[in-house]
Amino acid sequence: MNAPAIELANVTKRFGEVEAVRGVSLAVAPGRSFGLIGHNGAGKSTLFRMMLGLIAPDAGELRLLGERSTGARFRAVRQQIGYLPEHVALYDNLSGLETLQFYARLKGAERSDCDAALARVGLAHAAARKVRGYSKGMRQRLGFAQALLGKPRLLFLDEPTNGLDPQAIHDFYRIVAELKAEGTTVVLTSHILAEIEQRVDEVAILRNGRIVAQGSVAELRERAELPVRVMLRVDDAARAALIARFDARPEDAAHVSLQVSRENKLARLAELAAQSGVQDLRIVEPSLEAVFLEHSAEEAA
User: Fold this and answer.
1) What is the C-alpha separation between 268 and 249, in angstroms, rounded?
2) How many C-beta atoms surround the C-beta of residue 273 within 10 A?
3) pTM of the entire structure?
4) Residue 52 is part of which domain span?
């Protein structure tokens, strides 16, 4: 079995009297996508900064690609890391290509990577244009391009689709999927939970510096024991009967919905399917946002 690409063991970080990260342990396998979510101030940025090697943990151990973050060989690991920060700082007087060439020199990447990175994010047509003429979405894509320089084995993405339109978001996650297929390990954080729900293999919920839940989205749903929503397409007679018998909620003239507990799901689905006038049914699982709020509420209680 491959060693984890990222491994944290009881990592803690303090800033004065504030314990920003408290005993965090996690492991991310190579070629996987890992989501880190939490409220503002939960400790996500501090974790990112430690994993990037910008600050050292006060306690515990952090390894990337098998090397300790405080070890002598970690500098070489950092050259294999791509990072897209939440707020991309760019030089307005440089062109898009000049910007990437600047970052390529800093990172020790090949200058020939720059044209390919611009093309990959859809900015080849604007390579010679000054960054001051870029839109917000174009700046974000340029920031993503610099994160791709050097063919990183680890990619850290902080609110990565900020300013992108729907097509650009689709293209962004297509590239992320391609990188994963090539073996890149991806760690991302976003407040748009619906956007990352289907795009992460595993997620950790961070609260007050601690991980309060971790696993796949499906696993977290099971642990939260949230009910599923059943949507039914029905005729008029069945609509009235379901509302009366099951306290179903009318959605429109042809649909009703109701909440079903997980423990009673199979029995209730069989009962609903047997009702006369039910033409179709669809199960809607709780969203990642609902799971996040449930775990956060449990921790607060």
Assistant:
1) 16
2) 11
3) 0.88
4) 6-222
Band (pLDDT 50/70/90 cuts) for residue 224 is confident
Residues 6+ apart with CB under 8 A from 56: 50, 69, 70
CATH code, 270: 3.30.70.260
- At residue 95, the 3 state secondary structure works out as strand
| Beta carbons of 288 and 196 less than 8 angstroms apart | yes
pLDDT band at 1 (very low <50, low <70, confident <90, very high): low
Query: What tokens appear for 155 in the block?
Result: 């990619």
What integer pLDDT is reported at residue 127 of this predicted model?
A: 97
For residues 231 and 203, membership in a common domain is answered with: no
Is the domain of 185 the same as that of 43? yes
292 domain-assigned: no
What is the rounded CA–CA span in Å between residue 54 and residue 81?
A: 12
User: Which residues in 227-254 are b (16+ Cβ under 10 Å) and which e?
Assistant: ebebebbbeeebbebbeeebebeeeeee
Tens digits of residue pLDDT in 15-73 = 999 999 999 999 999 999 999 999 988 999 999 999 988 899 999 999 999 998 888 88
Which of the two residues, 99 and 262, has the higher pLDDT score?
99
Residue 237 is encoded by which pair of tokens? 């007679």
Sign of CA dihedral 131, 124, 171, 157: negative
> Are residues 182 and 277 located together in one domain of the fold?
no
What CATH code is carried by the domain that includes residue 86? 3.40.50.300
- The reply to whether 101 and 144 lie within a common domain is yes
> Is residue 299 domain-resident?
no
pLDDT at 301 over 70: no
State the Cα–Cα distance between residues 269 and 282, nearest whole angstrom: 10
* Residues 249 and 199 placed together within one structural domain of the fold: no
Tokens for 160? 């990565």
| Same domain for 18 and 108 | yes
Binned at pLDDT 50, 70 and 90, residue 2 comes out as confident
